[in-house]
Amino acid sequence: MNSIPKEICDRFAAHLYKWAEDYPRQLPWKGERDPYRVWLSEILLQQTQVSRGIIYYDAFVSRFSSIEALAAASDDDVFKLWEGLGYYSRCRNMLKAARLIVNELDGRFPSTYSEILKLPGVGPYTAAAIASFAFGEPKAVLDGNVYRIYARFFGVDLIPNAAKSKSHFQNLADQMLDRENPARFNQALMDFGATHCTPRNAKCETCAVRDLCFAFQHNRVEELPRKKTPIKKRERRFAYLVITDESDQTLLLKRPEGDIWAGLYSFPLIECDENHIFEKELETFLSQSGLEVLNSVQHSSKQYKQTLSHQKIFGSFYGIRVNSVSHYRLLAETAYESVAWSSLGDVAFPRMIRQYLEDRFSSLFEF
DNA sequence: CAATCGTGGTT
DNA sequence: TAACCAAGATT
After folding, report:
1. Is there a single domain that holds both residue A178 and residue A207?
2. Using CA atoms, how far apart are residues A61 and A38, in angstroms rounded to an integer?
3. DSSP 8-class letter at A207
4. Cα separation of A295 and A299, whole Å?
5. Measured from the CB, is A228 under 7 Å from any atom of strand C?
6. Which distant-in-sequence residues (6+ apart) come within 8 Å of A102 by Cβ?
7. Are the CB atoms for A123 and A168 separated by under 8 Å?
8. How many CA within 13 A on the CB side of residue A346?
9. Smallest CA–C1' separation from A190, nucleotide
10. Residue A367 confidence (pLDDT)
11. What per-residue confidence (pLDDT) applies to A363?
């Protein structure tokens, strides 16, 4: 690949720094050097808008003031704090990394890019961010903002994140980085992308580098970066069984690895495909459950819909009254648990289940 | 390496 | 509305 003239790099950086002074952006983690806090913010911000990340960052910092405190917390408590943010494997990997650092690295956060990169849940972007922000190492971040800025600035006609094009963008980013001030440069670049060189309605009229910008000069700002081909969404139908007994216990299960919402809790569910009729499945489930059913369908909810990145979930909830959930056949040997109804407010649920509980039972949780 | 993993903001 | 996409990582 051709190298970028030094003059271009220098002029870009100078304009970028001037822009950052003209458009200050205050964020809770800005200028932060504590690697724990930098790491925490970057994990929370993966595929997450800054405005939402701030809310969870404040909650996590307030609850866990050190990596030792985080490492010592229970999985369920941390998942509860993460509830609603999505991409829950981040939460699981965050806990793994915290415990690894505390238990095996004597609490010392790794201080180089290559060592940081080994942490669970830390990929090239996050490692570069932590290395530059917390340790001043000259590593160029490559996130959605950076893809967009350089796709436009250099007129790169490649789809971002495709494995083949990533190395091209990384090469550009590496050359453009101000190696004397990596933290300042990375921060300003992402701020610029997030607020000025935006996906739509980019503020080209007040952009100081537009004279150098390929997309602006060729009137292709709206076309770049190239869009990813849209994904097909699998449709799934979940029938949740809200089973309660006379002691106000209910059945929950912890969702396993390998499917959505791993690590969160759920009511037992019957997944209905086209060929399976819910009523028959329910009859089979109950007859094999060991439960003494008092009222097989005490109530049924409306149908909830939730669109995920790769799936569209249709969910309905069916209230079932039994004598005692402790008779459930799989309780002892599987991920199923008997939980007091009054404690459901402390359980981490997927959005759809939390929504159902609020719709139907909000008065019981003192929200 | 292309598919998978959530949820909500924005237009 | 529906598409786009957000400080990506993992498999």
Report:
1. yes
2. 11
3. -
4. 9
5. yes
6. A67, A68, A71, A72
7. no
8. 9
9. C7
10. 31
11. 53
Residue A255 and residue A115 in one domain: no
Taking the C1' atom of B11, which residue's CA lies nearest? A200
Bases of chain B with protein Cβ within 7 A: 1-11
Q: Known catalytic residues of A? A: 42
Q: A193 is written with which tokens?
A: 């992308």
Q: Are residues A244 and A116 in the same domain?
A: no
Residue A175 has a pLDDT of 98
Residues A128, A132, A133, CA angle at the centre, nearest 5°?
A: 115
Whether A103 and A138 map to the same domain: the answer is yes
Q: Is the separation of the CB atoms in A240 and A318 below 8 Å?
A: yes
Residue labelled with tokens 């003031």: A65
- Identify whether A226 is part of a domain: no
Question: Taking phi first (over 0 means left), then psi (-120 to 50 degrees means alpha), and beta for anything else, what does residue A366 get?
Answer: left
Whether residue A250 sits in one domain with residue A213 = no
Domain total for chain A? Answer: 2
> With a 7 Å cutoff on the CB, does A306 touch strand B?
yes
- Does any domain span residue A74? yes
Judgement on whether residues A242 and A358 belong to the same structural domain of the protein: yes
- DSSP lists the bridge partners of residue A337 as A252
Domain boundary, last residue among A188, A217, A246 = A217
Domain with A273 in it: what CATH number? Answer: 3.90.79.10
Q: Are A290 and A118 in contact (CB under 8 A)?
A: no
A262: domain range? Answer: 234-365
**Rounded average pLDDT per 10-residue block, chain A, 367 residues:** 92 98 97 98 98 98 98 98 98 98 98 98 98 98 98 96 92 98 98 97 97 97 93 94 97 96 97 83 94 92 96 96 96 93 97 96 54
Which DSSP symbol is given to A192?
Answer: H
Output the domain CATH number for residue A21: 1.10.340.30
Q: Which amino acid is at A362?
A: S
Residue A203 shares a structural domain with residue A249: no
Tell me whether residue A227 is in a domain: no
Is the C-beta atom of A185 closer than 7 angstroms to strand C? no
The answer to whether A261 CB is within 7 Å of strand B is yes
Burial class of A9 by CB neighbour count within 10 A (0 to 12, 13 to 18, 19+): middle
Token pair listed for A178:
């101000």
Residue A127 approaches strand C within 7 Å at CB: yes
